[in-house]
Amino acid sequence: RQGSVRESLGGRQSMGGSATRPGGLARANSGRAGGTDPLGMHGYQTLSPIANGAFSQIVRARHLSTSTEVAVKTFKKDKYFAQGNEHLAKAMKNEIDVLRRLRPLAHANIANVLAVVEDTTNVRAMLEYCGGGSLRRLLDKKRAGSNMARSFGVEEHMCNAIALQMAAALTCIHEAGIAHRDVKPDNVLFTDTTQAVVKLCDFGFAIACGTRKVRTVCGTPQYMSPEIAGKGGSEPYDGFGVDLWAYGAVVFEMLEGKPAFRGSSMEQLNIRIIRASHESFTAQTPPMARQLIKACFRLDPEKRQTAAGALADAWVSQAADEVEAKAAAAAAQAEETAR
User: Counting CB atoms within 10 angstroms of each CB, which of 198, 232, 298, 316 has the fewest?
Assistant: First the structure.
């Protein structure tokens, strides 16, 4: 079973080389007694935890040679390759395959992989670190200031900028034949505390599907499209269309400060989704943004907005000049810091 992972790593080769042995794969025995940092032999220092699950964990780390901070996602082999967990091994292979495909594109709005290393007990993906928190955290903070009379969303100019960058990321991955399948505020990260640049992250459900339809039921219920929520995987669906439905739901939530679809039960939530019966718009969502959201919520995936269409949308593109200026400033700052 481990062969599938090694194949996805390109014959045990690191993506772009390891931190300690360019062009090759760093080897280490992680988890040694005595508190040895398991990332040390790969040329990294563990800084702090980010997320910890039953099958994988993510930590913030520093590359010792360059002082660059990264996010390290560790896949535990004893979990992924355990008998009966073949689906997990397949999911890990899919995620690594997707990251490998996206890395050469180096898109500014995707949390790209920098390297993948393997040791006797783990497979680790070194990813670009985003230190500004998630869009989910920002929305929760805004929601905490809401009251019974009004929900507070994100300011329109900021929504513009985030929607533009998300559309750019989705256009990039869709043109590469990849569907994300879990677009949601939790998976949109700010690169730093200025909150000027966002990156799409977590490709755990992503799949390189090209133009073929897929069947796997995955994603997060409030952002699932009707073809998944209503049919439960009984029929194949278009992965790109699923991403655009979720994109529309995220844009709605940013502007209105509340999820587009809500229900007191999963059954009620699904009914509202399959009818595209979203929460009512308020004055917080301008007419042009409503048109975009409605285009994303078309029940027929063939008629739904596309990523490229969203990127060119009149409301979204209003932020283009501002986003480009801030991205250039951030790049200049990063270059100055690296000197």
Answer: 232
